[in-house]
């Protein structure tokens, strides 16, 4: 990445490395330019006390968890009509968000400090899902190398650079979804202002191991306990295979963004540990070093 030295901002450097969406710096971090105006408006979004916020770093199982939350709220293992992007907090307009029926189940890739204060003041329910960073970066790379942004006039994939450079973009926090380490650090160590908030913390890998138990935990946290039979039915309806089928064949496709091969590429493999098929030993060691420095923990998977 030596050719990047002359460029001034990380956003410019990321675009020069092959990210083909407009990036800007917001509060010192790289973000997609598309959310700049919405972020300002978000601060004044009228919050409802029964809103539910699903918070994830991109590629951490957001679609999966969002569908589970919808089923818990309706008490039935039936798919929501729309794709989860219908309720994407930082991408939808204020009007679109206000049209959603209560309880609204938003999903967002924002950090806690970027959410409207009212989310915390009104003690809205907040569900946070974390996924191991190496599987996240593989999933992100696969996504960005295949997806063409719906309204893009470029006709290019979101990312057209190399896998090796993509690892650095991720480690540097220069991807459009925001910085992984700050995101994970802030959600794992809520600031003094939010530390008394009760949030439901989930780990993608635990959901893979025992989804029924994690569905139960979410339902109890939301104050909407259901029967064991319903927990099992929700877990089954949201298995990788069933949810992929539902998103491709059953759901209304309005909010499904465009992929090269016409598939719903959001449902790629749905496994844990795929990173071992992608990282070289040198890449993995480079990754571990930054991971340990930034999160003060050893990479656990
Ligand atoms: P992979 O690319 O590793 O397959 P998000 O919804 O946050 O964009 O996350 C997408 C990742 O979650 C993808 O990971 C996708 O396959 C995986 N995923 C989606 N539904 C899943 C499910 N029901 N069970 C397990 N993983 C799932």
Largest sheet: 4 strands, parallel
CATH class: Alpha Beta
The share of residues in extended strands comes to 5-15%
Q: Give the proportion of residues in helices.
A: 40-55%
Number of separate structural domains: 1
CATH architecture: 3-Layer(aba) Sandwich
What is the rounded distance between the termini? 28 Å
The pLDDT mean sits at 92
Could you say which overall geometry the principal axes of the C-alpha atoms support?
globular
SS-based structural class? alpha/beta
**Which fold name corresponds to the CATH topology?**
Rossmann fold
What's the name of the CATH homologous superfamily? Answer: P-loop containing nucleotide triphosphate hydrolases
Strand order of the largest sheet: 4-3-5-6
Describe this protein's structure:
The protein is an alpha/beta fold. It has one domain: Rossmann fold (3-Layer(aba) Sandwich). Helices cover 41% and strands 9% of the residues. The protein contains 13 helices and six strands. The strands form two sheets. It has a four-stranded parallel sheet. Strands 1-2 form a two-stranded antiparallel sheet. α10 crosses α11. It is globular. Adenosine-3'-5'-diphosphate binds next to α3, α6 and α12. The site of adenosine-3'-5'-diphosphate has 21 residues, from α3, α6 and α12.
Task: Write a compact overview of the structure shown.
With about 300 residues, the chain is of the alpha/beta class. It is built from 13 helices and 6 strands.
Record keyword descriptors for this entry.
301 residues, Rossmann fold, 6 strands, 41% helix, 9% strand, globular, binds adenosine-3'-5'-diphosphate
């Amino acid at each position: 990445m030596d050719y990047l030295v002359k460029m001034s901002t990380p956003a410019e450097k990321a675009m020069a490395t092959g990210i083909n969406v407009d990036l800007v710096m917001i509060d010192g971090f790289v973000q997609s330019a598309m959310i700049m105006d919405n972020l300002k408006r978000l601060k004044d979004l009228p919050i409802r006390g029964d809103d539910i916020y699903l918070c994830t770093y991109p590629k951490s199982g957001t679609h999966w968890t969002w569908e589970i939350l919808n089923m818990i709220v309706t008490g039935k293992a039936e798919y929501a009509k729309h794709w989860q992007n219908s309720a994407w907090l930082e991408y939808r307009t204020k009007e679109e968000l206000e049209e959603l029926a209560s309880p609204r189940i938003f999903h967002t890739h924002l950090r806690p400090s970027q959410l409207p204060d009212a989310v915390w003041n009104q003690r809205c329910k907040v569900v946070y899902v974390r996924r191991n960073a190496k599987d996240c970066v593989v999933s992100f790379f696969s996504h960005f190398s295949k997806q063409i942004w719906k309204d893009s006039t470029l006709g290019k994939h979101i990312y057209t650079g190399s896998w090796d450079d993509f690892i650095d973009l991720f480690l540097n926090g220069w991807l459009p979804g925001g910085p992984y380490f700050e995101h994970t650090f802030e959600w794992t160590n809520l600031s003094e202002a939010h530390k008394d908030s009760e949030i439901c913390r989930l780990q993608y890998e635990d959901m893979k191991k025992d989804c029924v138990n994690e569905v139960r935990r979410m339902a109890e946290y939301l104050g909407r306990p259901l029967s064991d039979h319903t927990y099992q039915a929700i877990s089954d309806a949201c298995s990788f295979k069933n949810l992929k089928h539902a998103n491709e064949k059953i759901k209304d496709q309005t909010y499904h963004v465009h992929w090269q091969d016409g598939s719903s590429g959001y449902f790629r493999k749905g496994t844990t540990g795929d990173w071992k098929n992608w990282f070289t030993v040198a890449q993995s060691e480079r990754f571990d070093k930054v991971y340990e420095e930034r999160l003060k923990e050893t990479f656990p998977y």
